[in-house]
Amino acid sequence: MVREVDVVVIGAGPVGENVADRAKAGGLDVVIVERELVGGECSYWACVPSKTLLRSAAALRAAQRVPGAAEAVTGELDVAAVLRRRNEWVSDWSDAGGEEWLRGAGIGLERGHARLAGLRRVVVEHADGSTTELAARHAVVIATGTDAAVPDLPGLADARPWTSREATSAQTAPARLAIIGGGVVAVEMATAYAGFGSEVTVLARSSLLGGMEPFAGEAAADGLRGLGASVHLGARLVSAARDDRDQVVIEVEGGEPVVADEVLVATGRAPRTADLGLDTVGLAPGDWIEVDDTLLVAGEPAGEAGWLYAVGDVNRRALLTHQGKYQARAAGDVIAARAAGGLVDDADWGVHVATADHAAVPQVVFAEPECASVGLTEAAAERAGRRTRVLDVPLGSASGSGIHGDGPGGRARLVVDRDRETVIGATFVGPDIAELLHAATIAIVGEVPIRRLWHAVPAFPTVSEIWLRLLEALGRPDAPGDRGASAPDEGAAA
Question: Which residue range or ranges hold the FAD/NAD(P)-binding domain (predicted)?
Fold first, then answer.
């Protein structure tokens, strides 16, 4: 039997759920297919558990930075309690709540492994070996996400390495944890387990947080060392193996072997497209899927354009849950619009496109200290041929930052387009700075002129006052009636 529906969504993570929800709201009959847990990687093995693991130690350190509160902290971090709280946040890896949400939203659920089977066709193989064939009248959406990529290091695969899944779902903290990689997963899990008291060793091929401004990676490395972790940059690994005592031994070129109880591999992600039936529609299995700004797959899959979409990590535009959900909203809405023969708003910043993927992708790394960025780095702006001004100020120059807590402070940077006089990039590094990021995102997406930003007055005394310090570093734009940047601070006495 072939079941006909309007839209088939493959993958019930947050991205797939959002596509399904928006398409359903547009009046379409939608079925979502999931082979694991409804809620996907983010809910059970990535964003939610990782931030839960990080939060308790971060709160403890925040209290210790404030005299008076610091004296009240008399105990040690209760790691078992942290892990129990993580288990609660992932519902003990039960997706009953997600399944209930789908039912309430009127979205059908097929449990099993989905494969494309030609034009607008999806075959679902269930756990009992039976199959269901779905025929989509309007669209099929691939929202299968990614898996951890394990490098081809001799002996590593046989050493039973952790990936992000094992790191975020562990029920005990190993005494010694080696981490291969220098990206977000590596830095955050190093921060979490160092906070638990594990002996952490980070082995990074180059620097940390390579996609951010260099000072962010430097601060993350210093912060990890401050937590007692060993950080090796420029590490060249030779091999890995488990010895007869079940220890992982990692041979490092030109250095001493690293011995640990567990090794976490955090060297990147690979698309979940190898066993998806892409070959039946003329696409290459195992590849990332190229899409346009409406998330429509490029070319004519199975000989017909306009029916296959790829949303979220699988299209490699921005491997972040919030960005995938943003794409999902655009895709669900445009699928409904096209199905109804309605107007498609696909101009830049239109409701049916993911323009922000190119210009304003926000990201927070919950390291010690936090590192947050949006838009272009200085180097990326130069590669793009933009004429820029780069403004750096210490986070401690904002009174609110000093009141918030003692410590090394941090740093803030704006990258400004000289020709348009708008912000095109921002980076913040320091304790508890994640909440600064959305203001920068709005400034970039809205292309707010610098002269107008002068009128966005930050409240005193907050950490957000750093925006005033950044604008002062830029210099107040000349305008009739302006007194100039040299005028006294009328609020200083306050």
Answer: 6-323
pTM higher than 0.85 for the full model?
yes
pLDDT in tens, the chain (494 residues): 799 999 999 999 999 999 999 999 999 999 999 999 999 999 999 999 999 999 999 999 999 999 999 999 999 999 999 999 999 999 999 999 999 999 999 999 999 999 999 999 999 999 999 999 999 999 999 999 999 999 999 999 999 999 999 999 999 999 999 999 999 999 999 999 999 999 999 999 999 999 999 999 999 999 999 999 999 999 999 999 999 999 999 999 999 999 999 999 999 999 999 999 999 999 999 999 999 999 999 999 999 999 999 999 999 999 999 999 999 999 999 999 999 999 999 999 999 999 999 999 999 999 999 999 999 999 999 999 999 999 999 998 888 888 888 877 899 999 999 999 999 999 999 999 999 999 999 999 999 999 999 999 999 999 999 999 999 998 877 644 443 343 334 333 33
3.10.20.90, 3.30.390.30, 3.15.10.40, 3.40.50.2000: which CATH number matches 369-474? 3.30.390.30
Give the count of beta carbons closer than 10 Å to the beta carbon of residue 419: 9
* Cα 24 from chain centroid (whole Å): 26
Task: Count Cβ atoms below 10 Å from residue 171 Cβ, excluding itself.
Answer: 9
Could you tell me the residue ranges of all domains in the chain? 2-39+95-147+270-356, 157-267, 369-474
Residue 305, token pair as written in the block:
């354009």
Q: Answer whether 157-267 and 369-474 agree in fold.
A: no
Q: Quick one: which of 430, 424, 279, 287 has its CA closest to 361?
A: 424
Q: Please report, as a single letter, which amino acid is at residue 115.
A: R
67-82: b (≥16 Cβ within 10 Å) or e? eeeeeeeeeebebeeb
Contact indicator for 16, 328 with CB cutoff of 8 Å? yes
Backbone angles phi, psi at 426, to 5 degrees: -150, 140
Domain 157-267 class, CATH top level: alpha beta
Q: Answer whether CATH 1.10.3720.10 is correct for domain 2-39+95-147+270-356.
A: no
Strand order, beta sheet including 258-260: 237-242, 248-252, 258-260
Distance between CA atoms of residues 273 and 352, nearest Å: 25
- Per the DSSP assignment, residues forming a β-bridge with 414 are 391, 426
- 73-79: list long-range contacts, CB under 8 Å, 24+ apart: 77/195, 77/196, 77/197, 79/173, 79/196, 79/197
Q: What is the DSSP string of 224-245?
A: HHHTT-EEEET--EEEEEE-TT
